[in-house]
Specification:
There is one protein chain. The protein is mostly helical and 133 residues long. Helices cover 77% and strands 0% of the residues. It has helices spanning 5-17, 19-29, 40-55, 60-71, 73-81, 86-103, 109-132. Helix 1 packs across helix 2 and helix 6 (86-103) packs across helix 7. The N and C termini lie far apart (44 Å).
Length: 133
């Protein structure tokens, strides 16, 4: 977080008055490090140590965050294996939403997935064609 010197002093004064606030702040800022790991084991160790630190603080909202992270652990580990830029993910989600609007509903999930794959392959071929030209 980027703070001016005056704001940092104010924050440090608050932390000096309330140690629990300091711990909550540090716990809030530390999950950002999850996205820097390249190895699943290291990421899991960090996540489990963060959750262990969280248990002693009795912060309901942070416990809710920890539960959400554990529920989405497969996706988090996938991000560790393959770092896909979030812009690409948003573009794919936008394309799928547009596909759903155009189709006005699909009764068969497999057909929807086939259409989404076709859309992705067509876009990839189009980009490759443009680069070659």
């Amino acid at each position: 977080m980027h703070l001016s010197a005056q704001k940092k002093q104010q924050l440090n004064a608050l932390f000096a008055l309330n140690r629990r606030l300091l711990k909550a702040y540090l716990l809030k800022e530390s999950p950002d490090r999850l996205w820097n790991y390249r190895y699943e084991g290291a990421m899991m160790r960090y996540l489990h140590s963060w959750i262990a630190q969280l248990r002693w603080q009795r912060l309901k909202l942070m416990e809710k965050l920890a539960d959400m992270l554990l529920n989405h652990l497969d996706g988090i580990l996938n991000y560790c294996r393959t770092k896909v830029p979030l812009g690409v993910v948003e573009a794919v989600n936008g394309n799928i939403k547009a596909l759903l609007r155009r189709g006005r509903g699909y009764r068969n999930l497999n057909y929807l997935l086939l259409k989404a794959q076709r859309l992705a392959a067509t876009k990839a071929q189009w980009v490759a064609f443009q680069k070659a030209a």
